[in-house]
Write a structure and sequence with these properties.
mainly alpha, single chain
């Protein structure tokens, strides 16, 4: 397999392992969203399976002797020479090293609940509690 093809298969495989499908499914509230999400997951799994099987395999080597017997050496040798001269360039990933540190930094963003936030900012908790108690909703 070419370097580019192998890179695509590796990235897709790693991406599939890192997706928290169950966690995302818990966030869906409507039945329609759940159906669409199920369709998305099946499509992703289908593409990922194809990448893992069909595109990750090395091609079968050509049996040049078989063709020499049926077609003749001269024509087969001409095709073999042309085939051997084909050079598929190797994929060189110059983009990932630039963006991986930025992406990793984004994944490290922390989340916090409202209770955790108000614990750090008690003055805002008091303000919001007062607004709710006085039935003031900002409009």
């Amino acid at each position: 397999m070419s370097g580019a093809g192998k890179k695509v298969v590796d990235v897709a495989f790693k991406a599939g392992k890192n997706i928290d499908w169950e966690g995302m499914a818990k966030l869906l509230v409507s039945e329609e969203a759940r159906r669409e999400f199920g369709t998305l997951r099946r499509a992703f799994d289908e593409v990922n399976t194809q990448l893992q099987t069909k595109f990750s395999q090395e091609p079968e080597p050509i049996d040049w002797e078989y063709y020499r017997k049926g077609i003749g050496s001269r024509l087969v040798d001409m095709y073999k020479q042309a085939y051997d001269e084909v050079k598929i360039p190797q994929y060189v990933d110059n983009v990932t090293p630039q963006y991986k540190p930025k992406f990793d930094a984004l994944r490290k963003l922390s989340t916090m609940t409202a209770d955790e936030y108000f614990e750090k900012h008690p003055e805002l908790k008091k303000k919001f509690d007062d607004e709710i108690r006085n039935d003031y909703w900002g409009y």
